[in-house]
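Hey, why these numbers?
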Amino acid sequence: MLSRTVGRGVSTTEIGLGVAQFGNLYRETSDEASTDAVDRAWAAGIRYFDTAPHYGLGLSERRLGAALAGRPRADYVVSTKVGRLLVPDPSGAGRLDDQGFVVPATTRREWDFTRDGIRRSIDASLERLGLDRIDIAYLHDPDDHFDVASREGIPALIELRDEGVVRAIGAGMNQSAMLADFVRGHDIDVVMVAGRYTLLEQGALDDLLPAAEAAGVAVVAAAVYNSGLLSNPRPAADAKYDYAPVPPAVLERADAIADVCDEFGITLPQAAIAFPLLNPVVASVVVGTRTAAHVESTIERYEAAVPADFWPALVERGLLRADALPAAAAGGAPA
């Protein structure tokens, strides 16, 4: 498993394990399944793990911390997120969380990108993870909170970085334009962009990728399957896109990309994982997982050899932006 450098010497493996599902996303899972997934990832060489307090109201962080316990701390990278404080809510007794996680609603999320909120969030994450430092801390979805996140959130993360509590800082969002604003305006190390730099769409090339390259900021690509649309060799008619029913035109485009994959003897998910890593600004592709079997399939896809001529073929058919390909890949040389 190859690695790439983020910011001030933090090294992430090209595949990162996203563990939102450890927080019982959509359905319950177990401590054992989560540990097995981390064990399989570790055996495959994956050393980057991404979580957040939001995922299962802290359950994802607790399970990840337990699964990593006992491993050499210098050998792995953990990222978590700030901006949603977890606050006790006794009124939630007897009901489940209403944001997609099958966990008791006795805790609620409270948006807080203030300096105090950021520091409290990191302290709580350290306790849940059982760690003495966080490798990467992202502002989590500050879409409606840009002002306070810029004025207080980023400076608070810089303080924590200076203190050695976190090693690298940035923001994670489902859009690229605001991430580009953070890159241009602040001394950050890395951003996580979900769904906006994928085999299906490359809107981040219009703002985030050029800004990140100019500033020396790394990009982590998440949601590279676009809500599952690219996760199977042939897109399903009832697939989701941006967590909603897929529009017919988008499904048609994904199906056309799958046709080209068939021609070149690869699968759609293999190409979906390989594509972001063509860009040297991208430090890692984070893939969500629940079980060891999910990790197995991710490793198989990552290790698949994508023919060099595949990428120019997509460009020629209008299925991929030409400026998405580095010179070597555009010319058909091995990528």
Summary: The mean pLDDT is 96. The first helix runs from residue 31 to 44. The chain has one domain: 3-224+275-304.
